[in-house]
Each structure stands twice: as structure tokens, then as C-alpha cells.
Description:
The chain has about 170 residues and is an all-alpha fold. It has a domain of about 120 residues: Four Helix Bundle (Hemerythrin (Met), subunit A), CATH 1.20.120. Helices cover about 55% and strands about 0% of the residues. It is built from six helices and no strands.
Amino acid sequence: MKEIQKQWLESVPWQSVLSINEALCRAKQSEYKTNPRACVSAEKVWGSCAKKQMTLPEALELCKRCYEQSPFIFNNGNTFAAIARTMVEDWLKTLPPVEAQIVRTTVAHYVAGLVGKRELLKVLDHFGSMLTASAPAKASVASPAPAQAPKPAPAPADAGPPIESAHPAGAGH
């Protein structure tokens, strides 16, 4: 997965980046506000690279570089992490849910500077090989086949009431 060259950010022009931040601010009831000088700088970096063919790690590095410029006062990290997660979402459909969440979290944390490049590359290598192993022979890695829903395990005969989640709905990263 990490060697595939494509236009990862072609469908995300800078105006979409601004809209994503504005929507996140609205959802979190915070003010939508940019850091004007940093926003212009990040827009230039984004615009110069958005239509280029690059590998996934290169595209994630671009998101990280723009995040580090802090173009947004609020939800700066969430904005670029959301874009990074979206870039890998089609690929994640081919992975089991737990593995998909590991990749999703690693990608977002890399962009926000919480995970190093070495860890990112290890995760992409590990799960990229799972993708290759599970992909049908004619399927392209760039456009994986949709995942099939797993069959539920049979319930044990003495099953009690369902276990409630300790986390409230919507909680998490």
C-alpha cells in the first residue's frame, strides 16, 4: 500500500480543507478562525502538491507539514487527521474492523505528531501485506474489492444480558 503512487489529495482542494475545519468547529461548538499567515503558507504547500502523484506516506507527510504550520486556531489537528483517515478509508474496507481501526488511528496520530514515521511505516507494511493476501487475484491494490461482512459467532447456550460498552456513544478519537 505504501508504494502505490496516486493523486491522494486530488479530491481535496484547499477550499475543502477550510470547509472540513469549519464543520469540525461547528460540531465542537468552537469558533472557526484561521491563522492568516499560516493559512496562506499551508495553502501554498497544499496546492503545490495536491495534484501530484505520490505515495501514501508522502501524502500523509504533506498533511503533517500543513498541520505543523497551524493554519487553524481550533481543530487544526482534527482537520488534517480527518483528511488522512479519509485517504485510507477505501483500503480499510478490506480489513477486519480491529485492524482497520489500528491503521486509521496510526495514520491520524502520525499526522498530529503522536506517532513517528518508523511506526507509521511498520503499520502500513504489516497491514499492506494483509491487504495483498486477502485481495482477489485480479483486484488492484489501489481499488480493493469491498469487504464481506463476517458471520456472527453462535451465541452460547447460557448467554446472559448483553454487555454494555463502558464508553458513551460517539466517544473515542
